[in-house]
Amino acid sequence: MFDKLGLPKNLLWGYIGLTIFMIGDGLEQAWISIWMVERGLSVAQASYLITAYGVTVTLAAWITGVLVQTLGPRKIMFFGVIAFVIGSVGFIGIGLRNMEMIWMLPFYAIRGIGYPLFAYSFLVWINYSSPVERRSTAVGWFWFTFSLGLSVIGPWFSAMALPVMGEIHLLWTGMIFVIVGASFAILVNKDKVPDEEIHPFSIAELVKAITILKRPVMSIGLIVKSINGVAQYGLATFLPLYLISFGYSKTEWLHMWSAVFLVAIFANLFFGFFGDRFGWRNTIMWVGGISYAIVLILVWLVPQLFGHNFYVMAVVLCLCGVTMAGYVPLSALFPMLAPDNKGAAMSILNLGAGLGAFIAPAITAIFYTSLGAGGVIGIYSGLYVLSAVLTPLLKTPDELVNKKLTTK
Fold it and tell me: What is the distance in angstroms between the CA of the first residue and the CA of the last residue of the chain?
């Protein structure tokens, strides 16, 4: 059964643990900013808090690959749990008690270190312990379980529990999910990374997270991965305003946006299977790049043509969830681009994921006033076409050698 599903049996408890961990991490994502403003913070202060969280998430994601390469995934996942617990205790127990930014800011930032160290270490582990011919599928299962916890079960549980428990108690409950999930993924999961994949710890190994960008293929890969998340992070910054101008309500927007991620988690699984059969680069290029670019144009065009039509708009937005999953094989392809430094390669992949979260709102901030929603969506669409153009250049060392031999 596991072979048919493409789910690595040796990592089953890791996938289960990841889901539970991400439930705890994602409990507050849909309401924390609004609630803190209601408690007395200014919008600017709430924004600074979320920005600090985003910075530490990006930096932690960046170094995860090389840390796993030198210390092993199990240790780095444990460090992630410790960071989450320390950050949560300080943020909830000290900062939120009196809504004091001097405590909230550093502890929430520390909390942000936790999930990248935990989740992305497990992603590296998957690339070490799953066979190449089914690696895209194994990675698809990673993004399925990751999103299931973070974007589906976490917000759903939060919506059910908030009226009963209140915000503070719910945040403490998140720690229970995190500790239980970590126990499954770190302790119950008995898989062992091959010894040859772990290098002796040194500063030189850590610096490879930067120096590996000297390789053109890694720099190109960073651009492609950064583009991957642009629409996911960017649309939420302005699309609700655009849709409201056509008569859509905030509730309708929230329902449609939730549906996007519900569709995406199953699309992640599908395109994991699909990538192993159709080709990793082909899937990234045609589904993630070209198709996503076309769907984004439809996101702008449908309200212009149909006005307020909830069902048509919901279908088009769900297509965003489908096409964004076209990038799933990129997580399997990246370590193959630098087989001698898989950890450093995965660090660049994770850095790209973080950069996408910064690039998207920056584009909105710079161009929305002058170009409007259509202009910003046009820029996003152009970036996805660029990623499709760059994807064929993501060749593995063996492919580059064969190409040279063929040319000769």
Answer: 46
